[in-house]
Amino acid sequence: MPAEAAPSYLWVPGLGEAVDFVELSPEESHYLARVCRAREGDRAVATDGRGALATLRVLSLGSRVRAAIETLERPPSAAPRRRAWILCGAPEDQRGDWLVEKLAELGVEVWQPIECARARWRFSSGTLARWQRLAVAALRQSRRRYIVEVRPPAPLAEVASGLPAGAACWMADPDGQRGAPPSEGMGWTVGAIGPSKGFDPGEKDLLEGRAFKPICLSDGRLRTETTALAWAAWWGRGSG
Amino acid sequence: MPAEAAPSYLWVPGLGEAVDFVELSPEESHYLARVCRAREGDRAVATDGRGALATLRVLSLGSRVRAAIETLERPPSAAPRRRAWILCGAPEDQRGDWLVEKLAELGVEVWQPIECARARWRFSSGTLARWQRLAVAALRQSRRRYIVEVRPPAPLAEVASGLPAGAACWMADPDGQRGAPPSEGMGWTVGAIGPSKGFDPGEKDLLEGRAFKPICLSDGRLRTETTALAWAAWWGRGSG
């Protein structure tokens, strides 16, 4: 379906708890009225980014658009699904912005930048807000029901000890296994991508100790951000 | 191997025909001397981007570096290999630059932008030169033996009639087959990616008439450039 034929797709946190109508945030109101040029009476589709999906009808425009909820489908509580979690070292030239956008399009659910021995993220107070905006834009674009959770950078050892139990864990490695299929099963798959200069031996030991399996994603040497993307594309192919 | 431990990797067209030494282009000379900070006597690795691979030793620096060829391995003539060819409609916001870079890293050999009914490329005389520079940078980065051939945009019908015989052809399509494995065999695989608003029905018919099989690369709706990347990552996983 070409983009122009699809109804506008909105991110409305709190939608899952709403009853008859919603009031959109200033950002979503602007997007719907200015970018999508919606009018009163138009229909739109909305998600809370946590699995709920609704059909809305615009009641009134303005800085806070009001819309009636025509249909609302909440996800079955704790329904299992395939989920991806990325740990990623700093790429060169801080190419994090478009990486967040692309990973969100590909359906990754947790974006966790990691501080490594060989590279640290340049991260300021504005970075997280910018990533969050990119995540919303990618959610709208890809029309997904789950939004990526963007997290601030944290040390590898810290995040490695906080991963979900039972996750299938992979570490991108040019010497790793080729052609391994991603898990088709439900639950978390975690991908760890080193910074531009790679993981150091201690970091590799740490990941191997936590059962991260080495996987090779290309026959060439990929940049950090390309590796993360190739991993997410590999994971995404297993679904559906 | 961390990047700092690998010898510099250069693009030297004509290398395959060289005998004892080579004189580098001003661009590669600058890259080797200024970016890699090589000195006389240092070793470097070079490819012609057409399969030849050499070990060089720097004889003299300057605006045209001279280097001795220590070893030179030419590819067996017409040795078969897995090769990827991408036809790609215009993405939004002209995101072609990083797309060329990423496809080159992933090992795509032909980058063919296509003019479609719903979108045309903004293309100026500088675009091809810029793409060529990005292709060289990606060749160095990924340490490949084959450089991507960057082509100017051309109409879909024209390029579709000039594809290599026997190629396996795929068209990205949200309604296409999921989980199809890429061909492991040698030879060309062609991927056709629609512009941001998609192929129009006539274009789809044209591609189907040429045996392009629809393939779905994600359970979400991907942007054009993300689709091209996901396709190249999918293809690249089949190799090696």
Structure explained in plain terms:
Two copies of one chain form a homodimer. With 240 residues, the first copy, chain A, is of the alpha/beta class. Chain A folds into two domains: 3-73, Hypothetical PUA domain-like, domain 1 (Ribosomal Protein L25, Chain P), CATH 2.40.240; 82-237, SPOUT methyltransferase, trefoil knot domain (Alpha/beta knot, 3-Layer(aba) Sandwich), CATH 3.40.1280.10. Chain A has six helices and twelve strands. In chain A, strands 6, 7, 8, 9, 10, 11 and 12 form a seven-stranded parallel beta sheet that branches. A five-stranded mixed beta sheet of chain A has the order 1-3-4-5-2. In chain A, helix 2 runs parallel beside helix 3 (125-142) and helix 2 (96-105) runs parallel beside helix 6. The model of chain A has no long low-confidence stretch (mean pLDDT 91). The A-B interface holds A 1-4, 98, 102, 105-107, 118, 141-144, 178-179, 196-198, 216-223, 226, 229-230, 233-234, 236-240 and B 1-4, 98, 102, 105-107, 118, 141-144, 174, 178-179, 196-198, 216-223, 226, 229-230, 233-234, 236-240.
